C-alpha cells in the first residue's frame, strides 16, 4: 500500500498559526488517529493531506513522492466526510460509481467494482436506492464505499461517525477496523472521541494548539501519558495538587515516594487505579455513586475540599456520606505540564486529620 | 403496572379551533387574501370577461373578435414574436452571465468576492428610467462610446439604441442582481463537502459543474428562468425608452393601443394574451416551489 510522511507542516489562517511545524510518519497499512480538542488543528492536517488546504510551510509525501501542491482530484487519497457528503441527485450506485466513470472505466468493470465496494460495507442490493432513503449509518457506509472503490493509497476519515448514535458508532468503527485490516490500507482518522481513537488506532497522535503533544500506541497513550494535557485529555484522570518534600508527597491520603526535586506537584491517578475501602477517620466521604452497569463510579469528597473519582466493581456497596479509605495502585507525578515520575503508592492507613 | 392508556379527550392546550387561535389566524390572513382578491384576482377575471363579451346595441354578447383581430394582425403577431425573442435572449444572457458570477460568489473565499457581490447588486438600486438614459448617453448615437472611438480615430459603433438589442442590454443589466441572488441562494443547497467529495473522486471543474452542481440547482435554475421570463415579458420602461418603434414589445404596444389608438378592449386583450403566456412560466415557478417543499419533507 503506501507510506505517508508529513514534514514540518505549517498552516496559517489570517496570520494565525493553526499548524506549527508538524512532522509525522504513517507506516504502510497503519491506522493513525489524530485526536485533540476543537481547534487543535486535526481536521486541518487531514484536509492538507487530502489537498483541500495548501500548507504554508513543509511538505506532504506519499510513498516518497511530494504531493504538497497536487490538487485533490489528482491525489491518491480518498476522503470520508463527517456529513457523508453524498450527492442526493444520484442513486447509491451512482455515488459509488462516480469516480470510476470519471476515470473512463468500461461499464461492466464499473458495475463489478461498485458491487464489490457495496458488498464490502454490507450494502449489497442497495445500489438502486436513493441516498435519502438510507439511514445515517447506511449513508456513511456508502461514503466509505465511495472512497474505497477508487483504491486510494491513503484513506482519510474526518470524524465520520460523529453524527451517529452511540450503538451505531461502535458497530461501524468495528466494521471499519475490519475493512481497514483486510485491505491493509494506510489510514488517517480524525476524531475528538478518545474512546474511538483508543478502540481503532494503531497509533494515536494527540494534537494541541497545532502541535503534536504525544504520539503513542493506545496502550501507552492511556497508561503512560507524557504530559499533563494528554493525561487529562485521554480518559478520566484525578489530579491531586500537593508538595514533594524530601522525596515524599505531603498529600494526606497518598504518600508517594519518588526521587524528584522538592516543590509543588500534581498526583495523577486513574479512577480504576483507586481502590476504596470502608474505613473511619480518613475524612474522605462518598459524595455520589453512579452505576454504569459494568462498574460503579464513586465520587469521593476529600478532607482538603477536593473531589476524586474511583471505579469500583458493580457488586460494591457504598452510600453517600460513608467514610472510606483510598488506595492507589499507580500514580504519575506532574509538575506544570511535564511528567516527573510514575510510581506505585503506599497506602497511608490510619490518617487522622 | 403503570397504566399508560389515555382517554384521548383531555389534550392539554386544546385544539387551535377550541382555543380561538384558528380565528386569529384566519383574521390575520384575511387582509392579504382580500387585497389579493381585490387587486389581482378580480382584475384578471374582469379583464378576461371584458375581452370575451363585446358591447352590442342590446347589451353584451359573447365574442372572440378581439382575439381574432390580434391573431390575424401581422403587426400584433410581430410584436408578440419580438417580445418572446427578447425574453428568450435576455434569459439566456442572464444565465450565461449570472451563473458564473453566482458560482464565484458561492465558492470564492477571497475578499475580492465581497467587492464583486457589491458590484453585482448595484443595478438593483438604479431606477429603470435612469438606467435607460444612462445607456442612451453611453451607447446611443454620439454617446460616450462614440466620443471615445472618435477621439481614437475609430469609426462609430452601430448603436443598439432603438433596436431590439437596446432593451436587451438594459433588461439584462437591470436583472443581473436578482438573478444572481436567486442563483446564489440555489447554490447554497450545494454543500462545500459535496463539492470536495467530487474533487476527491477526481472531478475537474467542468465535470464538477456538469455532474454535481447543475443537477443540484436544477430547481433553482427553473425558478430563475420563470421569474426572469415573467419580469422581462411584462417590462415596460426599458422597451419603451430603448426599444424599436416597430415592431415593439408588448408593454409599449399595450400602452399605445390604450392611450393613442383608444381601443381599451384590444389593449385588455393584449394584456390577457401576455398574461396567459406569463401564466405558463408562472406554473413552472409554482411547480418548482412545490417540488422543493416536497423534497424537504
Automatic annotation (TrEMBL), chain A:
Q: What PROSITE patterns does this protein's entry cite?
A: ABC_TRANSPORTER_1, ABC_TRANSPORTER_2
- Residue intervals of the ABC transporter domain: 4-234
Q: Name one GO biological process term.
A: quaternary ammonium group transport
**InterPro entries per the UniProt record, alphabetical:** AAA+_ATPase, ABC_SmlMolc_Importer, ABC_transporter-like_ATP-bd, ABC_transporter-like_CS, Mo/tungstate-bd_C_term_dom, P-loop_NTPase, Transp-assoc_OB_typ2
Keywords attached to this entry:
ATP-binding, Nucleotide-binding, Transport
Entry-linked PANTHER family: SPERMIDINE/PUTRESCINE IMPORT ATP-BINDING PROTEIN POTA, SPERMIDINE_PUTRESCINE IMPORT ATP-BINDING PROTEIN POTA
From the Swiss-Prot or TrEMBL record, give the protein name.
Putative spermidine/putrescine transport system ATP-binding protein
| The organism of origin for this protein | Alloyangia pacifica
From TrEMBL, chain B:
What do the Gene Ontology cellular component annotations say? plasma membrane
- Database matches in Pfam families: BPD_transp_1
UniProt keywords, alphabetically: Cell membrane, Membrane, Transmembrane, Transmembrane helix, Transport
* Major location category of this protein: membrane
- Per UniProt, residues of the ABC transmembrane type-1 domain are 80-285
Q: How does it sit in the membrane?
A: Multi-pass membrane protein
Segments passing through the bilayer: 26-45, 80-105, 112-136, 168-190, 220-242, 267-286
Q: Which residues form a coiled coil?
A: none
Keyword flag Membrane: yes
Where does the record place it? Answer: Cell membrane
Which biological process, per GO, is one annotated for this protein?
transmembrane transport
As for family, the record states: Belongs to the binding-protein-dependent transport system permease family. CysTW subfamily.
Indicate what this protein is called per its UniProt record. Answer: ABC-type spermidine/putrescine transport system, permease component I
Organism equals Alloyangia pacifica
Taxonomic lineage: Bacteria, Pseudomonadati, Pseudomonadota, Alphaproteobacteria, Rhodobacterales
